[in-house]
Structures are given as C-alpha cells and as structure tokens.
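Please, structure for the following, as tokens.
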Amino acid sequence: QVQLVESGGGLVLPGGSLRLSCTVSGAPLESLRLAWYRQVSGNEREWVATISIGGTTLYTPSVKGRFTISRDTVNSRVYLEMNSLKPEDTAVYSCGVPRLDRWGQGTQVTVSS
C-alpha cells in the first residue's frame, strides 16, 4: 500500500522560502501521479501542484512562478520548493496520490512576521 510522509514545514517570514519533502513507499515513484494540497482549518483542501507520471507539472494560479514541484525517483521523494512566500500560503500541506486516495499526515507551513 502506498504510504507518504511529509517533512520540511515550519515558520518563515514573508518573502522567505521553504522546501517540503514527501517520502513515498509502497510503489515506484515514477508509476504515480502525485500532488500537493493544502488546507486551512475550517476550509476545504486546496490543490497546489501536480507532477504526472511523465514528469509534467501543473500549478494552481496563486502559486505559479513561486512554487516548484519536482521528484527524485532514486530516493523516492517528491519536493515542493516554495519561494516568495506570503501569509496567505499558511496552511497544512499534504502530499498524496489522489487516484488512490492516499495521503500523508501533513506538515504545517506558517508565513508570518
């Protein structure tokens, strides 16, 4: 069964950067379409970015140009590089395989001065 574990969240100043990692087990990374989502307490989960099996990347408009999703198939990790962070990026970020409804536990990102 696919399992995912996120890391790398934390507190950062506006304009700062963070890199989130998601370690994937239970299936070859290159066989999965993976996504990052985020959720603010009380709100619905929001899609952030996707990387397809072929490596194509997609982003929600609010993060395009600031966030980069990538993968390391050797170490079975997916990354979300986040730059020029804004307070409205504050959320719990989760990686997952939507097709399988498999998700990690999430990691908190707080952007605040």
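The chain is about 0% helix and 50% strand. The mean pLDDT is 96.
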